[in-house]
Design a protein that fits this description.
single chain, 369 residues, mainly alpha, 0% strand
């Protein structure tokens, strides 16, 4: 009797085509993370968790299962996304943005990708809450995407997270054709003047002023913006080095592990394998392309107004894939003009994009929750 019961619990009796396919998808994520270094800090934990949760009879997603508890108490409660924003803030240097505040406009312009994808999602039949969640993919900010999905549309958390992090790693492939199509060779050659030196007092005041302004207008963005700015204050104050180091290392590393495991836990075959997932992945590409285009087009306008003092390529960095999109701008600008150094100029709209996408998420949460 006991032997018969033991045999009945063997996992291979419960394998169906969906669980096998999801395990293969998990292996693909791990392969991409290791072989091509595509967001390995997230794709490897997500892929591994995806494999675990699709093993029949594992009990990981039952009421007291490990992955169920990870999702319920660390992801769904918004703790992990906020802790990651704390770490991001501690690692972010807002000096390029403060040295040239006009680049805030480029970070804001790139958020058009959020609204384009959202409108297309509605046209494709998604409800307004799911559409808003899909739109946030265009912000190119993984924690913000996860935070919004948990609040508005937890049923599509897996697909939108995979789309966000996969396309963030593909920024060097997605962005250059758009940038080249929308700019002339002459524009790409524009050499920008060195940025001014930003004082320590400006760096300390910025997170405080940012909270006062952004969170007053969009209170629902406070958890993300608040943790981002708190982390930055720890870094810039100069007197909390231990806390800043912890946020940059131990806290964000532990949070990233649990984020990946929690997201992967939502990728059971029955929930993940449907036409909606493919549609979300397609809309994610459109979100990234339109976000890049929005930033570059406003960059062209600013270049025109400034009489050629601003290289429009830096607008593409408004897609807040920090610092990858800024590096893409640097590479393309230097290809056209070897004396061109756009990295620090591009970091302004890059970090502005982080604030912009979190603010957009706050707006959606205010209107739709």
């Amino acid at each position: 009797m006991l032997l018969h019961h033991l045999v009945d619990t063997f996992g291979f009796w419960g394998f169906g085509w969906s669980s096998i396919l999801m395990i293969l998808i998990g292996l693909v994520f791990i392969f991409l993370g290791i072989r091509y270094k595509m967001e390995p800090l997230l794709l490897i934990p997500i892929g591994f968790s995806c494999m675990l949760v699709n093993i029949p009879f594992s009990g990981l997603m039952e009421a007291q299962g490990f992955l169920a508890l990870t999702y319920e108490y660390l992801i769904k409660t918004e703790i992990v996304p906020c802790l990651i924003f704390l770490g991001v803030g501690a690692m972010t240097d807002f000096e390029p943005l403060l040295a040239n505040p006009s680049t805030f406009l480029l970070g804001a312009a790139a958020q058009i990708g959020i609204y384009c994808a959202m409108l297309l999602a509605i046209v494709c039949g998604f409800d307004i809450r799911s559409a808003a969640t899909i739109g946030i993919i265009g912000g190119a900010d993984g924690p913000t995407t996860i935070y919004t999905a948990v609040k508005l549309a937890p049923q599509i958390l897996g697909p939108v997270t995979v789309a966000a992090y996969s396309y963030m790693s593909l920024v060097p492939i997605i962005q250059p054709p758009v940038m080249k199509f929308l700019t002339t060779k002459k524009e790409r050659k524009i050499k920008m003047s060195p940025l001014r030196k930003v004082s320590r007092i400006e760096k300390i005041l910025f997170p405080l002023v940012c909270i006062a302004i952004v969170c007053s207008f969009v209170p629902k963005a406070t958890p993300l913006i608040g943790m981002l700015m708190f982390g930055n204050l720890l870094k810039e104050s100069g007197v909390t080095k231990r806390l800043a180091n912890a946020a940059q290392n131990e806290i964000i590393n532990i949070s990233t592990v649990f984020l990946g495991l929690g997201v992967g836990a939502t990728m059971e075959g029955g929930n993940f394998l449907n036409p909606g997932t493919l549609l979300i992945l397609g809309l994610g590409v459109i979100a990234f392309i339109s976000a890049t285009a929005g930033g570059v087009l406003v960059g062209k306008l600013m270049s025109l107004i400034s009489k050629g003092k601003i290289n429009p390529l830096i607008g593409a960095a408004g897609v807040s894939a920090v610092p990858m999109s800024a590096r893409v701008v640097q590479k393309m600008g230097q290809k056209e003009n070897p004396k061109n150094f756009l990295l620090m100029h591009a970091m302004g709209p890059n970090v502005a994009g982080v604030i912009g996408s979190a603010t957009a998420a706050g707006i959606f949460l205010s209107l739709l929750r």
